[in-house]
Amino acid sequence: MSSVADPLVPVLAVVGTGLIGGSFAAALQRVGQVGRVLGVGRRAASLQRAQQLGLIDEVASLQQAAAQADLILLATPVGAMPEVLRTLAPHLRSHTLITDAGSTKADVAHLAREVLDERFVQFVPGHPIAGSEMTGPEAADPMLYHGRKVVLTPFEDTPGASVHHLIRIWEACGARVQLMDPTAHDQALACVSHLPHFLAAVYMGQVLRAEDADTRLGLAGTGFRDFTRIAAGSPEVWRDIFFSNRSAVLDELEGFVQLLDTWRAALDDPSQPDQLESLLEQSALARRFWGGRNPS
Asked: CA 181, 186, 187, 191 torsion: positive or negative?
């Protein structure tokens, strides 16, 4: 499949061939930096579709992936990782590199140390900050990671050569790589990723509870679409993310509730319109500044 004599990844195994895993394989295929791609998953229909789309070359078991792959990407819900790692561990070759695409990192790092034992240094936790509400192999996009940030949280014991190799692989996909401490990553993502998804899902629930929900949804425009888009994400994936990063998400939610009280008080006092306008202006300026630095 590759036109490069020595691709960065001679044999890639993708555990989970949907949006994230499928896009990773497709991105490396696009630049000729992968030789053979093995697909591993729970649903035979999804694996068959991934093969039909050319995202994978063949279907494999976890044991086969561990015994054959040079790089294994775990693109599964966080809750599935313990069993996946336990199955992989006895069959891993000494040079096989493992990474993941989970949205939380401290729990994954702890799990890798616990399950992989002395081979935990072959695992480099990662989080590509890219995606969409779409799921399944059909959602795979070879340009998904182009210009996007990927966070890696290697252990202190991780060989530098392994980290550098994984950085080159992600850069081949068009991504920009940043190294972080796993706890710092989880705290930041609770604020800018996990809480927004939680609030979008809660808000959709509020709309659906209304007696005239159909009327309201029929009148909704682009603002409603933008605000609620992420609520359409995989419930299984997001359930695991929320529980995995529960403490940080609850902290952010508590801060949000306190701030919401401030905004509610400003709205409840029409005699002081400048208070609400000042709050709106602060948020508007911050969003415009961020948007100018991070165009979509």
From this structure: positive
Yes or no: say if 25 and 2 are a contact pair by the CB < 8 Å rule: no
Q: DSSP character for 192? A: I
DSSP for 59-77? E--HHHHHHH-SEEEE-S-
Structure tokens at 140: 């795979």
| Mean pLDDT of the region 184-197 | 96
Give dist(CA 248, CA 258) in Å, integer: 16
For 179, the token pair is 């190294």
The reported pTM is 0.87
Task: Pick the closest to residue 37 from 78, 79, 65, 4 (CA basis).
Answer: 65
CA distance 68 to 38: 9
Going from the N-terminus, what domains does the chain have, and what CATH number goes with each?
Answer: 9-180 (3.40.50.720), 184-293 (1.10.3660.10)
